[in-house]
Amino acid sequence: MPKTKMRDIVVILPGITGSVLQKDGKDIWAVSGQAAWQVLRSFGDSLYQLKLDRDDPEADDAPDGIKAVRLVDDAHLVPGLVKIDGYTATARVITDNFEVVPGNIRENKPANFFKFPYDWRRDNRANAKVLKKYLDQRLKQWREFTGIKDAKVILLAHSMGGLVSRYYLEVLEGWRDCKALFTFGTPYRGSVNGVNFLANGYKKQFLDLAEVLRSLPSVYQLMPIYKMLKIGDKYHRIAEAPFDLPNIVREKAKDALKFHREIEDAINSHLQDAEYRKSYKTIPMVGIQQTTLQSASFIDGQIKVSSDLPEWIDPLLSDGDGTVPYLSAVPLELSNDLRETYFAERHGSIQNHTRVLQELRDRIKGMQIQWQNIRGPETTPEATGQSAISLSLDDLYLADEPVEIHAKLINFQNSGGVKAQITPVSGSGAATTYTFHEQEKDWVLTIGDLEPGLYRVSVQTENAGAGIPSAVHDLFEVVE
User: Fold this and answer.
1) At how many degrees (to 10) do helices 354-367 and 88-97 cross?
2) 3-state SS track over the chain
3) What is the pTM of this model?
4) Are 216 and 66 contacting, i.e. CB atoms less than 8 angstroms apart?
5) CATH classification of the domain holding 51
6) How confident is the model over 184-234, as pLDDT tens digits?
7) Residue 349 belongs to some domain of the structure
8) What CATH number is given to the structural domain containing 458?
9) DSSP strand pairing (234-236 vs 302-306)
10) What CA–CA distance (Å, rounded) separates 56 from 328?
11) Which residue segment(s) compose the domain that 159 sits in?
């Protein structure tokens, strides 16, 4: 098939931890294809260089001299906080289907396809300002180079990359130059995982990494902005708790909430502008049907997280993508627009899901057509009624515990079985297929002999044919 000419500029923004960081030309965060324990072992004390004691949102680079140089293209995870199965497939959708000129967003050369590595430690305000600086330059240059005066920007943002994009578009007025924002699992209202990681770490492992991440304003900006912490018989926002919470710096939490309110205030102001209302479209790709943390309680001096929704939230919002709750994956102002598209997939893999990539390709092709009334985003929340696999597993398994994975079949009567293909990402070895065993309404897989390392898992039914749920993917790690 011939490629479609790309008139616009396309930019991929990764999630938190998704950019390689260097200092003095040496990698200090480069986790592509590695397990977290391998990273800690290989970088040792240099990992503490990632701590961020101060950050000037007006500066192009952080004061400690650390710079983002490229995307982490392969799978990696930070247990308890985030899992990302790379961005290679996302990039190939663009290069395989469109005539584009790849370039480096920081280089002064005409191009229209970029990856935007950013220092994910920093305040998202700072990275949004860096994004604006370079997009202003590259878009002007592309328009002059091609003569396409109405060329605009299309942003493809995974997870926290969507928050960077939102600040650029709304607070920094980037909407004037933008055609579309596609988000894959962006936590518009935050993620309980961020609270859990800050307050409790993860399985008491990686405490040195937890100490580093607790210093970062970006991690605080991933915390929920809705009332989800139950203290006594009332729910509170983390930033508005009536007393200090363990391992959470109150001032950082307040500033993180302010970051989200700045975006909200800018949108409410822009909605009065007729030109704005005809400008860019936000198209959220939402992961569903996966068990996801939804709330927390303060009990006996500790924050204890739960997958139970706060009582005041509609129970139809009770799932998510395993990291980002369903209620958080849609922007506040689009809550009733039915603009989002739903996929039964895990957070770290949604940007690589086959249907997501097909949807992305077709929508961007439609945006290159020279007419006004382009078909809008899918408006069928009935997608939640499609057959699906709900996957539940830990991020990390210790050497003395078996790997246990649970799967549930949604809207599908399975007369066959459920299987998992488990592939080593770090280390060597071939993919191995395992069969789940049915236990009441659950399907369970227990493995007791995996070598330490990072693994990719793909779960699907044994059945083939029409109506079967699509495979679900995730990452997990086994440590020594």
Assistant:
1) 40
2) CCCEECCCEEEEECCCCCEEEEECCEEEECCCCCCHHHHHHHHHHHHHHHCCCCCCCCCCCCCCCEEEEEECCCEEEECCCEEEECCHHHHHHHHHHEECCECCCCCCCCCCEEECCCCCCCCHHHHHHHHHHHHHHHHHHHHHHHCCCCCCEEEEEECCHHHHHHHHHHHCCHHHHEEEEEEECCCCCCCHHHHHHHHHCECCECHHHHHHHCCCHHHHCCCCCCCCEEECCEEECHHHCCCCCCCCCHHHHHHHHHHHHHHHHHHHHHCCCHHHHCCCEEEEEEECCECCCCEEEEECCEEEEECCCCCCCCHHHCCEECCCEHHHCCCHHHCCCCCCEEECCCHHHHHHCHHHHHHHHHHHHHHCCCCCCCCCCCCCHHHHHCCEEEEECCCEECCCCCEEEEEEEECCCCCCCEEEEEEECCCCCCCEEEECEEECCEEEEEECCCCCEEEEEEEEECCCCCCCCCCEEEEEEECC
3) 0.90
4) no
5) 3.40.50.1820
6) 999 999 999 989 988 988 765 555 677 888 899 999 999 999 999 999 999
7) yes
8) 2.60.40.10
9) unpaired
10) 28
11) 4-191+260-294+300-384
Q: Are strands 388-392 and 403-410 parallel, antiparallel or unpaired?
A: antiparallel
Instruction: Kindly report the average pLDDT of the chain as a whole number.
Output: 89
Number of domains in the chain: 2
Tokens of 311: 């009582």
- Of 352, 384, 416, the position where a domain reaches its end is 384
Looking at the structure, tell me whether residues 455 and 313 fall in a common domain: no
How many residues are present in the chain?
480
Label residues 256-280 b or e (16+ Cβ within 10 Å = b). bbebbeebbebbeebeeeeebeebb
Residues 245-266 have pLDDT tens digits of 999 999 999 999 999 999 999 9
Amino acid type, 237: R
Helices 250-270 + 124-146 axis angle, to 10: 40
Cβ-proximal residues to 41 (8 Å cutoff; 6+ apart), any chain? none
Q: In this predicted model, what pLDDT tens digit does every residue of 418-440 receive, in sequence order?
A: 999 999 997 778 899 999 999 88
Mean pLDDT, rounded, for 135-163:
97
Contact 370, 192 (CB under 8 A): no
Contact 135, 13 (CB under 8 A): no
Q: Which residue in this structure is represented by tokens 């020594």?
A: 480
> Alpha-carbon distance 166 to 70, whole Å?
21
- Residue 11 backbone phi and psi in degrees, to 5: -130, 130
Provide the b/e sequence for 341-358 (b: ≥16 CB within 10 Å): bbbbbbbbbbbbbebbbe
Q: How many CA atoms lie within 13 A of 418 on its CB side?
A: 30
